[in-house]
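Consider the record:
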Amino acid sequence: MRLRSVLLKIVPLFGLAVIASSMSPRSLAAEQSSGVPAWLAAHVGEGEGQIASPVLQKARALYLRKLSEGAVRNPCYFAMDATRPNDSAGRFYIICEADHSFRVIAAGHGSGRDLSGVADFSNGRDCARNFSNANDSDLTAGGPYVTGETKTSFKGYYRVAANQDAVLMRSFIQFDGEGETANARQRAIGGHAAVALKGVCLRKEPGSPYANQDGYVPSGHLVDYTGGRSDGCTSWSPSDIRRIIAMVRSDPTTLYIYPDAAVVNAVARTVAAGQSPPRAGLYWNASCLRKIHAPRFWARESLEPILAQYRLDHPAPPPRPTPICAGP
């Protein structure tokens, strides 16, 4: 008790940083559950490099709850504001309260799909209008997640210089959701680098450890689509995902993606009524709301039957074998 009284006298003089580094994550949850600390509040806002208050509140509440449950111990947590534009200013947040660290990076949103003549729930590159937790929708589903295991797989070779190739190994961080996002594993929702191989062909390389039984390896050209769209997963730049993997590989943490279905539906109803979402106490990034006019959440109960019928009416063509690369 005496030590605690001394600390309470010291903290006002030197700030929370004096004891923050020695606090366990669970102690941090107990100490800070009453409100956002001052250093973090300085990053709250709707300007560039800031996090909107409703996004932080949802992300922080999820993190503190999972800390108290013992589900996570990581000193950092994540948030994503999918109502913001997909630009270099960033909309994915890495928050480490113990060391007063706040970082903003870029992240992609789900592209959606245009089922010609049936339903169009596609998204543009800059702003997301459509959201869903439906399988095969290629859409982002907002809500609570916890990071799971990281899997790394070989994708193929790509040319980096004359007669010099590199190997593309892409890592995938599985997300586990709850409630409306509980089907994250079923949907294979997670995070990965925004890179892929295009124009893939098979090249004879019997000495490669990745060669198939006939001695061939896939080879293509590398495409970096950082700042682009994804199949519903969260995508980051190759340099950013290396940092993220280092943070969560053996130490899971929480991610809250804003907006969830309730927010999407509330904003849509408000706009349809000719009212202003901010005046109704609802947050949506203003510049994106002007572009999309109103968002829409496609519930899996309604969208999945549409997708199933579309597959029946438009069967995929039989898969074509990967071609053999021409030349040496």
About this structure: The chain is about 25% helix and 25% strand. The chain has a mean pLDDT of 90. The CA atoms of residues 20 and 204 lie 56 Å apart.
